[in-house]
């Protein structure tokens, strides 16, 4: 590939439960085989009816305790805990692993763009969401569901992939050699995150946001690999939790 | 911006100390004002003569101890420590903060593509490198120096920015509102990392790697902000080091 282009899909409407995202994208953009369609998790969640009312949550003692520390609504904290399979950090922010393996603050639950007293959960399984959207497209494209996340060590948020279909999350350089014939130290490259980052830049945030970006001209592997680091291979997660258990 | 294009600069030659990267890029690609020129840190380092011979390092007791744990050459570990202002994790990998603020394994020191017994350090100050390259361009472009880094919680490496010039590292959404008039929870977006990720995808690794990518059509803020999280605002760094001090 010599050049790649990234296109905003304009005039994407507000999404409600049951909307057919695949059809809505193809109505507005002439997809071609091989395109990578990046979709913000918020619109995927909305199409899947992942709105909840805060009043539907009864905070546990633990949720109340965390909420007090963080000065948040305890029902919101309960919603985060309900979406989590593991808590990495409780304060000064609530960093959890979601049930589908993604690690993020507040389990990625969004209070923007959804109205007072309501929250929007991430898709229950963004990989399955991506499969379904991809299956609904007439063209043979890859689909990436993106989210915006903070990162350790670096300021600011950046787009990452939380679900994908028709593309391998990792590009495998194992066995490849450098110019001098030495085996490369870099072995696996998180290409879905690299694509999601640029897509997120184009999408923007807030009222001017555009939730769908199409990337054209990429060469990418179609399948294999995982991106959420397994707990037993995550040194930093282990250290954070070790520390927590001691304190 | 409705669409953005990313272009590989082909036939970029091997770089030696003193090479004028700005001229070499403009000789091979017709830049336009506003383009974002992404350059792999390896070629920046080579142009700055950041090669070192391992035999030039005398490992300290500490370097010898770490090297034994990690089964690495103690002179290599000494080189990493020399480039670091702080060690976050000693094993099972050596995670450090470089003198210019970037946190990465082995201080980003590369043993690929540089020959036996030699290593390639990151640029001493990639921001200054970016300023110098940008200053050498005839067109008014932004410059991003990229590196490939692992991340906590997620598998695989991804491209990030370690230096930039003519572009703000963060896009500021503070005060912006969502469709329903609520203030956005997301406030600062690490746009240089989002651009660097896609550029890194196009660059590839190893013998087929192309170290320069030009991104055209982006709208971006020109100045302000920082991307390396200050130590006192980095909860995860603090917890890792707290734990370390106790053990």
Can you characterise this structure?
- 2 copies of one chain form a homodimer.
- The first copy, chain A, has 247 residues and is of the alpha+beta class.
- The first copy, chain A, has 2 domains: 1-50 and 124-228, CofE-like (60s Ribosomal Protein L30, Chain: A); 51-121, CofE-like domain (CofE-like fold, Alpha-Beta Complex), CATH 3.90.1660.
- Chain A contains 7 helices and 12 strands.
- In chain A, the strands form 4 sheets. Chain A has a 5-stranded mixed sheet.
- In chain A, helix 3 (61-70) packs across helix 4 (74-82).
- The longest helix of chain A has 13 residues, at 191-203.
- Chains A and B meet through strand 1, strand 9, strand 11, helix 6 and helix 7 of A and strand 1, strand 9, strand 11, helix 6 and helix 7 of B.
Based on DSSP secondary structure assignment, what is the total number of beta strands of chain A?
A: 12
Q: List the domain count of chain A as a whole number.
A: 2
Helix content of chain A: 25-40%
Note the total helix count of chain A. 7
CATH topology of the largest domain in chain A: 60s Ribosomal Protein L30, Chain: A
- Regarding quaternary structure, how should these chains be classified? homodimer
> Span from first to last CA of chain A?
52 Å
Query: Per CATH, which architecture of the largest domain in chain A?
Result: 2-Layer Sandwich
- Overall, the morphology of chain A is globular
Largest sheet descriptor of chain A? 5 strands, mixed
Give me the side-by-side strand order of the main sheet of chain A.
1-12-2-8-9
Q: Report the order of strands and helices of chain A.
A: EHEHEHHEEEEHEEEEHEH
Radius of gyration of chain A: 19 Å
Instruction: Considering residues with a beta carbon less than 8 A from a beta carbon on another chain, report the largest interface and each chain's count.
Output: A-B, 73 and 74 residues
Question: What's the CATH H-level homologous superfamily of the largest domain in chain A?
Answer: CofE-like
Tell me the name of the CATH class of the largest domain in chain A.
Alpha Beta
Task: Find the structural class of chain A using helix and strand composition.
Answer: alpha+beta
Give the uncertain stretches of chain A in residue-range form. none
Mean pLDDT of chain A: 92
> What is the strand content of chain A?
15-25%
């Amino acid at each position: 590939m010599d050049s790649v282009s990234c296109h905003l899909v304009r005039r994407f409407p507000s999404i409600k439960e049951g909307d057919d995202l695949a059809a809505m994208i193809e109505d507005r953009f002439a997809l071609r085989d091989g395109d990578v369609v990046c979709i913000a998790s918020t619109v995927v969640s909305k199409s899947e009816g992942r709105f909840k009312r805060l009043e539907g949550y009864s905070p546990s003692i633990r949720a109340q305790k965390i909420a007090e520390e963080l000065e948040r609504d305890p029902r919101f904290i309960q919603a985060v805990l309900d979406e989590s399979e593991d808590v990495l950090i409780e304060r000064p922010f609530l960093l959890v692993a979601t049930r589908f393996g993604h690690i993020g603050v507040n389990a990625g639950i969004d209070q923007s763009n959804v109205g007072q007293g309501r929250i929007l959960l991430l898709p229950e399984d963004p990989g399955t969401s991506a499969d379904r959207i991809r299956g609904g497209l007439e063209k043979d494209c890859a689909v990436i569901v993106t989210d915006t996340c903070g990162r350790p060590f670096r300021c600011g948020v950046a787009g990452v992939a939380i679900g994908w279909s028709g593309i391998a999350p990792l590009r495998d350089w194992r066995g490849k050699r450098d110019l001098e014939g030495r085996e490369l130290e870099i072995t696996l490259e998180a290409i879905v995150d690299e694509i999601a980052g640029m897509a997120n830049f184009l999408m923007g945030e807030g009222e001017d946001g555009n939730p769908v970006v199409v990337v054209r001209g990429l060469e990418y592997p179609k399948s294999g690999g995982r991106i959420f680091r397994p707990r037993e291979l995550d040194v930093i997660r282990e250290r954070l939790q070790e520390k927590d258990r001691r304190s």
